[in-house]
């Protein structure tokens, strides 16, 4: 793109875009996590759902998550051009224009919400609409650039999918789905603050008030430890409340202890640590932690439905 003048990028971007560029707009890695947690919410819900409706619900949730990603990239195009970790996205690369991304995101958002509401149920459709609105407007347009608590409050957007999945089956929200929400909600701050620690220069250049930039590394390390300690018992709640087995509770407890141990290592880190290996390890483990918790719930429920678990 070095031979394309910056003032001409918007006029030629549509000619440069490929299907993979539009796929990148959807944030497929984030979408995969959304679909997975929504699937767990659907499978955990009592009763059942017709396979065609279940597939339609998951497809709508995936499209809705993709719409949120596209709208986020549209609004964040200015800072994505500054941050090293986002400069290769389609808009900063000049492959898709901001207008195209906005139109793409709005179209997918409307389509996914309408399809889910009409073919599955109105409650699930409304929850999906609120999730998209929360991520695109409340988080991306407001919280992300205005407060260091951006990821704490904004993390709710990423925690809604299991509730949407549950509602797709039952047409309602219950305490079980709220527990699944709480696990993701409390997991989000230590997960993203660990990332922000070793990407703080990026956030500082872009003017994003992430906690390491605003309050410093010491406060960030303390907050990571606090949220990790709070997260550990919440991860065990499915067993305590009776909708997961004792074996799940033991495994969740062990994972929670591992999370806290890594958070303690981050807390004890030196401010002069340039490599930030403890933060990188916590970030990597946090992904495994969330995946394993939801995978265990999914496997247990599936085995129960097949009669292998009482």
TrEMBL record:
UniProt enzyme class? transferase
Concerning InterPro entries, the annotation shows: Protohaem_IX_farnesylTrfase, UbiA_prenyltransferase, UbiA_prenylTrfase_CS, UbiA_sf
Q: Tell me what else is known.
A: Carbon 2 of the heme B porphyrin ring is defined according to the Fischer nomenclature.
The pathway to which it is assigned is: Porphyrin-containing compound metabolism; heme O biosynthesis; heme O from protoheme: step 1/1
Top-rank lineage group of the source organism: Bacteria
GO molecular function (one): protoheme IX farnesyltransferase activity
Tell me the gene name: ctaB
Gene3D superfamilies noted in UniProt: UbiA prenyltransferase
Q: Which CDD domains match?
A: PT_UbiA_Cox10 (cd13957)
The UniProt catalytic activity note for this protein reads: heme b + (2E,6E)-farnesyl diphosphate + H2O = Fe(II)-heme o + diphosphate
Q: What is its EC number?
A: 2.5.1.141
**Membrane topology of this protein:** Multi-pass membrane protein
Name of the protein: Protoheme IX farnesyltransferase
Q: Report the PANTHER family cross-referenced here.
A: 4-HYDROXYBENZOATE SOLANESYLTRANSFERASE, PROTOHEME IX FARNESYLTRANSFERASE, MITOCHONDRIAL
């Amino acid at each position: 793109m070095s031979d394309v003048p910056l003032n001409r990028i918007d006029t030629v971007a549509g000619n440069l875009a490929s299907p993979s560029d539009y796929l990148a707009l959807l944030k497929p890695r984030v979408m995969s996590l959304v679909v997975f947690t929504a699937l767990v919410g659907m499978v955990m819900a009592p009763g059942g759902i017709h396979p065609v409706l279940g597939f339609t619900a998951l497809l709508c949730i995936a499209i809705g998550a993709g719409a949120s990603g596209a709208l986020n990239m549209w609004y964040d195009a200015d800072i994505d051009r500054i941050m090293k970790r986002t400069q290769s996205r389609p808009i900063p690369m000049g492959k898709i224009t901001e207008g195209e991304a906005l139109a793409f995101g709005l179209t997918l958002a409307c389509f996914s919400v309408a399809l889910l509401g009409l073919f599955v149920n109105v409650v699930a459709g409304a929850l999906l609409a609120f999730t998209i609105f929360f991520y695109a407007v409340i988080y991306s347009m407001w919280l992300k650039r205005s407060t260091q608590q951006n990821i704490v409050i904004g993390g709710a957007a990423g925690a809604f999918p299991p509730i949407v999945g549950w509602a797709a089956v039952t047409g309602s929200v219950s305490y079980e789905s709220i527990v699944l929400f709480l696990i993701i909600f409390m997991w989000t701050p230590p997960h993203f603050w660990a990332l922000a620690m070793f990407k703080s220069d990026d956030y500082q250049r872009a003017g994003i008030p992430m906690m390491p930039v605003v309050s410093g590394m010491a406060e960030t390390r303390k907050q990571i430890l606090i949220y990790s300690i709070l997260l550990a018992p919440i991860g065990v709640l499915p067993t305590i409340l009776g909708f997961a087995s004792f074996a799940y509770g033991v495994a969740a407890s062990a994972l929670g202890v591992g999370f806290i141990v890594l958070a303690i290592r981050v807390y004890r880190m030196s401010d002069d640590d340039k490599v930030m290996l403890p933060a990188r390890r916590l970030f990597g483990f946090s992904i495994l932690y969330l995946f394993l918790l939801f995978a265990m719930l999914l496997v247990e429920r599936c085995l129960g439905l097949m009669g292998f678990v009482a």
